[in-house]
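TL;DR need structure tokens for one chain.
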Amino acid sequence: MLAQWVKTQALYGGRKFYNFTCFAVLGTNLFAGTSTNGIFLSNDRGKNWKTINAGLTDTNITALAILNQNLFVGTANSGVFFSSDSGSSWEAANNNPLNNLIATLTVSGSKLFAGSLTGGIYVSSNNGTSWNNSLYRDYPILSLASSGSYLVAGTYGHGGYLSNDNGTNWVPFSPSSGMNYIYAVAAFGANLYVGVWGSGVFISTDSGTSWSAINSGLTDLNITTFTDSGKNIFVGTNNGGVFRSTNNGTSWAYAGLQYNKIQTLAVIDSCLFAGTNNGIFISSNNGTSWSSAVIGASNPPVHALTVVDTNLFAGTENGIFLSTNSGSSWNDVTNNLQSVSVYSLAVSVKNLFAGTSNCVFVSTNSGTSWNTTSLSGTYIYTYSLAMADTILFAGANGSVCRSSDNGASWTSAAVSMNNIQALAVSSDGSGGINIFAGTSYNSKFNEGGVFLSTNNGTNWTAIAKGSVNTLAVSGTYLFAGINDGLFLTTNNGASWNAVENGLPHTPVHAITSTSNILGDTTIIAGTEAGVIVSTNNGTSWRSFNIGLEGEVVHAFAIFDNNLIAGTVNNGVFRRPLSEVTVVQWDDIEIPVKFSLSQNYPNPFNPSTIINYEIGSPTLVCLKIYDLLGREIAVLVNDWQKKGNYSVIFNGKQCSSGIYFYKLSAGHHYAVKKMLVVK
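>> reply
TL;DR here they are.
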């Protein structure tokens, strides 16, 4: 049998990147709506989840409500749906409210109210069978809440409305002059609460006649949602996390989840749930600590791999996983890691660092628990981490930051860079170090490429221009992986050479090196054409892909005499390292075919078919342009595997004339002309 790659156990768990928009509670059932993937249900306080989308034709969920044991859902494009069996099946509510973009739902007595993003409030008194207009307005209704016969509504740009007769009549109000953007409303006991964007929380104790600001302790005044547990009131904010009040809002205390957009909150017994743009979080102690709900998918994209002693870690789109047996089994160790995607990993002695979209986290116990470092903020995107002795470097927020105390404090480099995709460290031969930073390229400002610092990141010098995906050092060799292959320098960037002999013109995302027992060095590149290997420092390359065909490789690690490869679509693979270092080559030709066919029919009205073929996995874009070069439509913009594809273009909005369609796949592109005749 030929030596080949072996797929490890599937990575399952973590936290899938779902944008959670709304909650509803029915007994012990918690329903969670998302903006892209419909509705999830948990009946065990968030331990397990399942999708419940049968019959739901619009999975962009904006609101949930429960009336008479029926579950109602508002959608962004298709109005209201209802379920009488706890979400096992769904039906469109008859006579949907003008098929409106539903923003919010609430229940008052036996009536269901729906607020529309296109304007107005609608009411149904027969479980959605028919609807009537309750409040006609031509601006968005963002939020609704009820208490007895009282209803409160928040709008976008026009303040709020109150009704004391169950929606028959409405009276406008503003909590304070000019405060017209009310994203959240709530009624707890005899008190009404509104969350005004940029101005915080206001309370009314007299049915809306007067309002008072109650913002003591709030550090983010962009309020998004409310809930209460009977003893505590909780508010969610746009970026500052969750806040808790034990005195009806007189004062607030921070309750965690900073840098997450809190879009919905709910309480079941003693458990507080927060639905965010980064998944669902659960707290059993009123926000003192949080854990992430495991709403995972098998084999999320793997961004990073690293090793701590006998532990192999995989940083993925859905969190962090741990294996002690080269991937024969994996455990989810995302635990209390409060972020969506893990882009980078680094190790300092026993400390494991994880770079994410909003913070660098550290674990001192192999992922059992995680702590935030002081490098945190909204959208800092730490795509790269590197260690040099006891100094940790992080590429974050357009700057290289360094810490010599395990993340307790950071110093930022003075030079601002574009997105820092990669960091590498090498000896300068005199007891010091060189730090290399690879960035993406910004054509508008003509910036991006490889930068060098010889003084621990205080100053930087540009040594190459372009867009860099990855960097790696092997002795005196520095390799830079780009979207069109690999470049090499042996003199710290004074000159560069393209590495082309046997290496396909394909994006290179990962590079590592290892030596065999004879001391010979092997360079290993992870590309969109699989794994490519060189035993002569890049002079020539061969593919190494049996068992890995068609995979896009983004990360490497060497663990327990195995080469470990992390992929975008199928998790983690392994192969004995000896098979790589003794060069048992796979004689598989790297596909390079690319073709774009003439559309058929041509001329056409209104539709035509465009066929094309790509020979290797890559980012594919297919766009339509008019004679003036204006973009008319984007038909494809996605990563695709090798193969033949057909796309239908509907030109019903186009007038008669000549149009062009352009296919881009990796470094290939082609343009053809087509004719619309009406």
